[in-house]
Amino acid sequence: YQTKLEFALKLGYSEEQVQLVLNKLGTDALINDILGELVKLGNKTETDQTVTNANTSVMREASSVESQRSESPLQEDVTEDGDNLRPIVIDGSNVAMSHGNKEVFSCRGIKLAVDWFLERGHKDVTVFVPAWRKEQSRPDALITDQEILRKLEKEKILVFTPSRRVQGRRVVCYDDRFIVKLAFESDGIIVSNDNYRDLANEKPEWKKFIDERLLMYSFVNDKFMPPDDPLGRHGPSLDNFLRKKPIVPEHKKQPCPYGKKCTYGHKCKYYHPERGNQPQRSVADELRAMSR
């Protein structure tokens, strides 16, 4: 009975339909006769179909509730494990100029990036901006929403890198060095579209760190969007990239669009979460096994 039931379920039939057929034909009925009756049941009235679909949906809802219960500890760990998230160091100038289309220093872009990480649960977020950005906007250095910088500084998120004037000339400290150094020492993530090639050439350990911990991004209007695959298609997902210890399993393959109704078995090139690590035979292999 179990073998016939599993075979019918793979073809998309419900357990109630299998029981109806076996009650009619008997438990010793051949698989071909059972399939014939199942096909006839597929042509029944819309009323019967509605009842069957309702029963099936109830079973699926119950199974989904059970699966959610079994997965809830992992989900709680993902949402509540804020200590497992890496520190974030944001290149404020790079983000602000990117949001301002390289024409305006847009402080709103910095706020959007900071909010994106805070909403994901990151507690350690630092932004570096040159101190001369406190000065009033000029035609050759346009800046918008400047009050955001003051607000982020009060919240101890934004840090101004030192600068001063010597005999009318501005002396500016290299803010990129602050960014890379803090991220390296805190084992964090650098958020920037800059490759920091000059700093990478200074120290081999910095080069390796920049290659492995640089998170690039894009702005779609006012939406901050980092890539889902920060290190390429064969690298970790964004969720695991931002964590000290990976929690979310890496699924390299795309989920199968046919789901449980897939007839390719272990030959299917797509990912089947319902199978786990167990191989599944195709319908053709099942028929050959049953005929033997």
TrEMBL record:
InterPro entries xrefs: Rege-1_UBA-like, RNase_Zc3h12_NYN, ZC3H12/N4BP1_RNase_Reg, Znf_CCCH
Gene3D superfamilies in alphabetical order: 3.40.50.11980
Keyword Nucleotide-binding: no
Coiled-coil region: none
Pfam family, one: UBA_6
Biased composition (Polar residues): 50-73
Basic and acidic residues: compositionally biased ranges: 283-292
Keywords, in A-Z order: Endonuclease, Hydrolase, Magnesium, Metal-binding, Nuclease, Zinc, Zinc-finger
Gene Ontology cellular component terms for the protein in this record: cytoplasmic ribonucleoprotein granule; nucleus
UniProt zinc finger (C3H1-type) residues: 250-275
Domain called C3H1-type: residue spans: 250-275
GO molecular function, one term: RNA endonuclease activity
Cofactor annotation: Mg(2+)
Region of interest (Disordered), ranges: 50-79, 273-292
Similarity field: Belongs to the ZC3H12 family.
Protein name per UniProt: Putative ribonuclease ZC3H12C
Source organism of the structure: Fulmarus glacialis
